[in-house]
Amino acid sequence: MKTIIAASVHSAINNDPDCKLNCPSQPHKEEGGLRSQGIYKHSLPGKPLITVITVVFNGAETLRDTIESVMKQSYNNIEHIVIDGGSSDATVDILKQHDHIIDYWVSEKDGGIYDAMNKGISLCSGEYVGMLNSDDMFSDENALQVIADRFCMAKVDAVFSGLNIVDKKNIKKILRKYRVAKLNSVLLRIGVMPPHPTFYCKKSCYEEGGMYKTNYKIAADFEMLVRLLIKQKISWSFIDKVMVTMRSGGLSNSGFITGVKLNCEIVRACKENGLYTNLLFLALKLPIRLLELIR
Q: How far apart are CA 248 and CA 235, in angstroms?
């Protein structure tokens, strides 16, 4: 009887035009992946679990390349989590097609890229965590094996490497070779940091120091690195290889006005973490950026 009553109420609600206008709509959420089949991964002796977090929004044109670059990795203890911000294109269709490969994916509205990254971190089980977003892909099938080996040998909190920025329509055309071999206060004061998609660190770094600050619109990744280095004093190791390929574009490369906002957030990030800089100091990074350009 309860079932019949509930079904009748549900039908009445769905067919009542006044209720459709006045009742608040529920946020749409879809999810899937290996976890939905009860398959969970964890670190093994000599083979730590590495979590790769992919954040995407309307990224159907490039997401497949990202997923397949993770799938092709030779390292065999990877957890891949995809956080979609409620895409309206074919992104969810692509996620469903890879349901048997991705460990967990979710599609729902969020508070932006850094909120999505935080969600991914909170969901992950990996001992080490990195971000590979929907415009990025691993440059080498052995990238995560190299990262795992370096963590095991160097016993550090974080590792990072080189990155190539390529033409969005022709990924064989390299536009910029992004290589920062150090993570130190001098470089951070002039706004230079290692490429974020190559940065992998212990999950415990986030647990101890906090997540990405969502009140930053462009430079929360920069603020995170300043916080990790200055306040948490993490240890790190540079891998002298190009590990990630990134298509051109993105929040921090979107024109003059965005550049000004980025620099203002960089100054703020340094100030909040006890590292002095100013907009004049940030001009010193220009020669470094010019050297990275491919002619």
A: 30
